Each structure stands twice: as C-alpha cells, then as structure tokens.
Amino acid sequence: MHMHSAIADFALDMIVQSRSLVESNQRILYATRHRIAASHRRLNPAFTLAGASNGDYHSLLTSIRARLASGDLAPVGQKVFAGNGNSNSSCVVCYARIDPTEVEYEITLGNGGTVVSHLHCYSLWRCESARQKGSENN
Question: Coil, helix or strand for 30?
Fold first, then answer.
C-alpha cells in the first residue's frame, strides 16, 4: 500500500513539474515571437505600422472593434490580394491614403464588394474579425 502511494505522489509531482515547464516554454515562445516581429519591423519598412503611428495603435484597435460591432465595418473577407499601393486608394480601416511605396491589401467582402487596406490595418482587422466571430460561436 505504501508503495502505491509513493508512486502516486511521484506521478503527481511529475504532472505539476510538466505543467510548470509547459507554461515556462509558452512564455519563452511568446517573447521569441515578439522579438521576431520587432526584428521584421526594423529590417523591412513594409512591416511597420502603416496607416497609424505607434501611439494610435490602441485607438485604431478600439475603432475597429466598435465599427465591427456596429456593422460600420464588415468582417474581413476570405479573398485577399496584395500589391503596390494605388495613389488614389484610402484604407477602409484608418482612412489614410495608401502610398505607392506601401503594400495594399485588396479584400473581397461577403457582399462581393472590394475594399483596400494597409498591411498593419488589415492584420488588426482580420484578428478582430476572427475574435468577434469566435465570441459569437461560444
């Protein structure tokens, strides 16, 4: 009987230790991904926060959330094409002009219409669309 309790205690200790190591690895992985993204932004200007300054990040995210919730901004579509910016295009997310030196995303919406967006604006829009869709399914 005493041997079974020792084995059970050992197994529980191993589970606790494994969970702790998994959490530690997840923190390291998150930090690594953050460093990689920061390096991309420093190495390639196309990965910078186009369409919004760093200080406007939270206000842009708040605007996207509010506009998606109210229906003023449709959820991001499934078909997306990327190319050079068109000097006549304005971003549907931040309303700023997309310069020819920037990456322009052309998104086909569910109603068949198309809109354009900056790379960074599209990324935020796509993430928030998925987040809101996920919260509706729960």
Answer: helix
Q: Is 99 exposed, middle or buried (0-12, 13-18, 19+ CB in 10 A)?
A: middle
Residue 88's pLDDT band, with cuts at 50, 70 and 90, is confident
Does the pTM surpass 0.85? The reply is: no
Which residue's structure tokens are 């996920």?
134
Backbone angles phi, psi at 83, to 5 degrees: -170, -170
Q: Which of 115, 82, 87, 119 is nearest to 100 (CA)?
A: 87
Token pair in block for residue 57 = 């990040």
Tokens of 50: 């186009």
Token duo for residue 113: 């219409």
- Name the token pair of 135: 């919260």
Question: 116 with 89: CB under 8 angstroms?
Answer: yes
